[in-house]
Design goal:
single chain; 494 residues; alpha/beta; Aldehyde Dehydrogenase, Chain A, domain 1; Aldehyde Dehydrogenase, Chain A, domain 2; 7-stranded mixed beta sheet; 23 strands; 39% helix; globular; binds nicotinamide-adenine-dinucleotide; Aldehyde_DH_dom; oxidoreductase; methylmalonate-semialdehyde dehydrogenase (acylating, NAD) activity
């Protein structure tokens, strides 16, 4: 059985805690590996390596850092199929989707290649006579990234690309459910020229996370995962004096107005609800259909479902893989099982006709869903599309805005004026206009509102650079006899 260990100071280091977790192939339900769970002492060892590597990395000139990032970009690009198959084997998503994940992660590395430009500060000459003022951005020190199972390659790239570019050293704690890709990336980073200790991976569970949250040498924590844990990470990390950005769960709505192109809307709903088996924080979970088009729209979604090829991610013909674990599959199935009793209508039941092995659930539709039902109030994180019928645009927007989450949202319409009003009205961080999964490109930043994000910084892009740096303002004067005098008054501009 494969044993998955830690990556400390540029080398694989076997765990010593005698605690570990099981890693499965979700398409077969067969255990493929065991992953070491770090003890407090092992986390301390990783952090110490990152502390030691920080002074030299911080002093490395910007051109060299950019050169290394270009090398990482080339290596990730060259090995993208291999990265995709490593992650697909443990996550279950189909290869084409996994390659898409790697490509979106790569964008963040490409963004970080521009670090010499991104770290430019401001300069004001002659703020006072003979006095200049300038601002600089400096790294924080050792920063940690704690990541979810659903994007085991992309989400770490959201974090470490900018963190390293800014001169920080990094400790990654990947999901214990699909940890192999993090170690694969660690080896690529080493090949790219990242010095030992600058990028480290510690595997583990709550013990490792809690130590990172309280360790005095961790300056900042980036987290992506479920809302209860995100809130816990934010509260515990900030209580311990750390800068924290903690992205949580979601319940994304897609509002379809009567003037929308219904075929385009149905294609989008199917792609966004069932892609990656619904295990995306930007997946569409709720289809808000304005009454007059609801029946037609549901029919169009329904007729597309039989064509979706569900099966192991390793078969390139498949379009949708299994869920991550047996427990998660059972939880998703419980929403379908309980829906009728709550008053919803099961239009397509994805529990029917599933493969005998593995953690599969097929695409499902629940109609006549309403707030107050479990399937509406909770994040399902599976291939279940809830249809909520609304009478008007205003009713749809009110529902979106009263939801506890505010990650992504989409509007389908041909009316530019309504679309513009929608972007003005909605309390959601990422908005798609006829775009169902509006994950921002890497030169913007990613982040939801409300229970989808705890902290002040969105992730990656310009906000990522701000998160991973501290600014310093220098006020300077050079000796000039004409401007020197004794003056005990408070300095004012002259
Ligand atoms: P999760 O919250 O269970 O785990 C995320 C990380 O936290 C993992 O590394 C895990 O080991 C750690 N963790 C889990 N329980 C912990 C605890 N009690 N104490 C300390 N650490 C703990 O999330 P997941 O199931 O891996 O991922 C799915 C969730 O992530 C969904 O809710 C999804 O919406 C969310 N997500 C959000 C975004 C976003 O950008 N907002 C992106 C991807 C995923």
């Amino acid at each position: 059985m494969k044993q998955i260990s830690h990556w400390i100071n540029g080398a694989t280091v076997a765990g010593t805690s005698s605690r570990s977790g099981n890693v499965f192939n979700p398409a077969t339900g067969v255990q493929t590996a065991a992953v070491d769970f770090a003890s407090v002492e092992e986390v301390d060892q990783v952090v110490a390596a990152a502390v030691d590597a920080f002074p030299a990395w911080r002093a490395t000139n910007l051109s060299r850092r950019a050169e290394i990032l270009f090398n990482i970009r080339d290596l990730v690009h060259t090995n993208r199929s291999e990265i995709a198959s490593v992650l697909s084997a443990e996550h279950g998503k189909v290869l084409s989707d996994a390659i898409g994940e790697v490509s979106r992660g790569l964008e963040n590395i490409e963004f970080a290649c521009g670090v010499p430009h991104l770290l430019k500060g401001g300069y004001s000459e002659q703020a006072s006579v003979g006095v200049d003022v300038y601002s600089i951005k400096q790294p924080l020190g050792v920063v940690a990234g704690i990541t979810p199972f659903n994007f085991p390659a992309m989400v770490p790239m959201w974090m470490f690309a900018n963190a390293l570019a800014c001169g920080n050293t990094f400790v990654l704690k990947p999901s214990e459910k699909d940890p192999s890709v993090a170690l694969y990336l660690a080896e690529l980073l080493q090949q790219a020229g990242v010095p030992d200790g600058v990028f480290n991976v510690v595997n583990g569970d709550k013990v490792a996370v809690d130590r990172l949250l309280t360790h005095p040498d961790i300056a900042a924590v980036s987290f992506v995962g479920s809302t209860p844990i995100a809130k816990y990470i934010y509260e515990t990390g900030t209580k311990n004096g750390k800068r924290v950005q903690a992205l949580g769960g979601a319940k994304n709505h897609m509002l379809v107005l009567p003037d929308a192109d219904l075929d385009m809307a149905a294609d989008a709903a199917v792609s966004a609800a069932y892609g990656s088996a619904g295990e995306r924080c930007m997946a569409i979970s709720v289809l808000l259909a304005v009454d007059s088009v609801a029946d037609a729209l549901i029919e169009k979604v329904k007729e597309r479902i039989p064509a979706i090829k569900v099966g192991p991610g390793s078969d390139p013909a498949n379009e949708m893989g299994p869920l991550i674990t047996a427990e998660h599959r059972d939880k998703v199935a419980s929403y379908l099982a309980g829906a009728a009793a709550e008053g919803a209508k099961v239009v397509v039941d994805g529990r029917e006709g599933i493969p005998a092995e593995g953690y599969f659930i097929k695409p499902s539709i629940l109609d006549e869903v309403k707030p107050g039902m479990r399937c509406y109030d909770e994040e399902i994180f599976g291939p279940v599309l809830n249809v909520v019928r609304v009478k008007t645009y205003d009713e749809g927007v009110a529902l979106i805005n009263s939801n506890a989450f505010g990650n992504g949202v989409a509007l389908f319409t041909r009316d530019g004026g309504v679309a513009r009003q929608f972007q003005f009205d909605v309390s959601v961080g990422m908005v798609g206009i006829n775009v169902p999964i509006p994950v921002p490109v890497s030169y913007y930043s990613f982040g939801g509102w409300k229970n989808s994000l705890f902290g002040d910084h969105h992730m990656y892009g310009p906000e990522g650079i701000n998160f991973y740096t501290r600014s310093k303002v220098v006020t300077s004067r050079w000796p000039d006899p004409r401007t020197s005098s004794v003056d005990l008054g408070f300095p004012t501009n002259r």
